[in-house]
Amino acid sequence: MNVNRINVSGRRSIHPATRLGTVSLTVSNLESQIHFYQTMLGFRLHWTKENRAALGAGTDDLIELVESPGGKRYPRTTGLYHFAVLFPDRRELARAVGRLFAAHYENHPTDHIATKTTYLRDPEGQEIELYAESPEDGSMGVVDGEFFARRADGTPSSGREPLDLKALFAELSPDDRFDQPIPSGTKIGHVHLYVRDVAEAIDFYTGVIGFDDMGSSPQLQAGFVSAGGYHHHIGLNSWIGHGRPAAPEGALGMRYFTVTLPDGAAVSEITDRIAAAGIPIEESDSGRLIRDPSNNGILLTSI
């Protein structure tokens, strides 16, 4: 295992069992947001305390909501573009999409070939992706700076085709209900961030944190990093403009996303590199909080 974690440049990769955990969001109306995530997305309410709440699939917290009444969303600033909820299979994605259609809630089903997905916004404007893996249908990625999407039969795709809803809903059985909560296997699959500079962000996430570079495209102004060979745990883009600033403290949006490692030793290995790079580390009961060069918060924890 240790040998496999040393890449060709000699850089030590983050532990391959690393996954993403809780995404913490600042919201302006806690009660309204709890209602949305329960009724529109089928999340379970795990706990509430004062101005905070956490929801998920009945096990780990997937999202934390922290209320800041009167908070504003600042466009064209770095931060969270979207967080992506990964369902165990197409049937569960079909239930999630069916729930949205039954409620006439606007969403945008999309076929990325290697994943099936839909996009929507919560009532306060935060973009969310719901998806299921579908590698049997083909592949998608970036090679030598060029984006590609290819179906299993070898034919090319844009990777952004309309999702075949008839085929998706065929995964459902007559007794499937849209008012049931999401299954326990649901998790945060990835986050996609607005950054001030894609190359700078990739250098940070690969060179300091230890994620593997899964490809970047100057033409697309985007790049992707992951652990353990996954297509991406973190997407990075500068679509709002190069060099854009971070939102002011207290703005609506992401407070931090969580990187969960398999044990304390794996966390210490990363924090040693972070400290050596002169990056401040904030200790808390939840983990170790750091910030990337675009001021996006990252909470490092272990299982």
Q: What's the short story on this structure?
A:
The chain contains five helices and 19 strands. The protein has 303 residues and is α+β, with helices and mostly antiparallel strands. A nine-stranded mixed sheet has the order 11-6-7-8-5-12-15-14-13, covered by helices on one side.
Summarize the structure in words.
There is one protein chain. This protein has 303 residues and is of the alpha+beta class. It has a single domain, classed as 2,3-Dihydroxybiphenyl 1,2-Dioxygenase, domain 1. Helices cover 17% and strands 37% of the residues. It contains 5 helices and 19 strands. It has helices at residues 30-39, 90-102, 165-169, 198-209, 264-276, and strands spanning 19-27, 44-49, 52-56, 61-67, 79-86, 108-111, 115-121, 127-133, 138-143, 146-151, 161-162, 187-194, 212-217, 222-226, 234-237, 253-261, 282-283, 288-291, 297-302. The chain has a 9-stranded mixed β-sheet, covered by helices on one side. An 8-stranded mixed β-sheet has the order 2-3-4-1-16-19-18-17. A two-stranded antiparallel sheet has the order 9-10. A hairpin with a 5-residue loop joins strand 18 (288-291) and strand 19 (297-302). It starts with 18 loop residues before the first strand and ends with a strand.
